[in-house]
Amino acid sequence: MRAMKTLDREKINAYVEQIFKDMAGAMTAGLGYVGVQTGLFRSMQGQGTMRMQQVVEASGLQPRYVEEWLKGMVCAGYLDYDPEQATYELPDELAFLLASDDTDHFAGGMFSMAPALLKVAPQVAEAFRQGGGVRFDQFGPECVAALDLLNRGNYDHKLVKYWLQALPDVVKKLEGGAAVLDVGCGTGRVVCVLAKAFPHSSFTGIDLDPNSIEQANQAAEENNLTSRVRFISQSVEQLPEEESFNLITACDCVHDLADPVSTLTSIQRRLKSDGTFFVVEPKAADRLEDNRHSVGAMFYGYSVFHCMTQSLANGGPGLGTCMGPQQTEALMRDAGFTEFAILDIKSRVNLFYAAR
């Protein structure tokens, strides 16, 4: 009979603390979501120290909920608290990140992913046993809204002014008039940003989710872009073979594909001879040991509860959020691209590629 291994009591205690810490993080993400959605962070921004009733009056929310939220945020380290004065304060540095909607430094959108993804946790657990996964349409409209909130600040403020500047030849073509295709366009944020910046170019956005396309068309109408912008609910393979583009973009979606090589091959075939395929993917290293940090842990969670599972649900390989540069390049080469480059664009959460 195998002898029982003596357990290290200090390690047990450390793991217990880690479990509590991680559960606290999950609850903090929920409280952060409420703070963004209800405007609590914005109501405290720049106000200095506030009593609970002042926060209630500034936010217009229910006192008992506000009180418990304030206490939870103090325990999480998000608010400063003066016990003698019983006052709460949102630090300016945190307000910069959480009360800054529609900027490129707004971090509050990340909180919206927690309820959107964990909602399908029981279905994902069942997929562990039975196989398959959770299709994109099963996540519901909350997930579509969460993805837009997560990314829109960067698309609005960095896509044209920073990211594309790494490709000056592409910018020159866009300024003169180019045909652009955005694959996996979602609610149309990328297309609308590009269309407003480059009035001589024409744009097509495609996505398999009809609800996202409906919102994208509405965005085009609201921005008076319908003469140069079209959105279609279909795959790349369904586009006419003779239709070609100077620029094709795929922002945060290649790793989601159910048939990546086939889709990328179709993209390569629809790219003009001097065209560029611009790809944005999550920032993950090729080696697991290099992803042992908070962003890596977050991305593997995104993968299990969203990216990987929706690919597997459609019979795909489930590449996952953290496929890394080597696998990305291998996919591009398999699809017929002969040139592949990692672009020198700084970001804590994204990698940028150009393929031709």
Gist of the model:
The chain is an alpha/beta fold and 356 residues long. It is 47% helix and 14% strand.
The CATH architecture of the largest domain would be 3-Layer(aba) Sandwich
Class from secondary-structure proportions: alpha/beta
Main beta sheet strand tally, sense and closure: 7 strands, mixed
Number of domains: 2
Strand order, main sheet: write it out: 6-5-4-7-8-10-9
Percentage beta strand: 5-15%
Number of helical stretches of at least 4 residues = 14
CATH top level of the largest domain is: Alpha Beta
Label the overall shape: globular
Question: What is the count of β-strands?
Answer: 10
| N-C termini distance | 62 Å
Give the low-confidence spans. Answer: none
Per the CATH scheme, the topology name of the largest domain is Rossmann fold
CATH superfamily of the largest domain: Vaccinia Virus protein VP39
Provide the succession of SSEs: HHEHHEEHHHHHEHEHEEHEHHEE
What would the average pLDDT be, to the nearest integer? 97
The radius of gyration computed from the alpha-carbon positions, rounded to a whole number of angstroms, is 23 Å
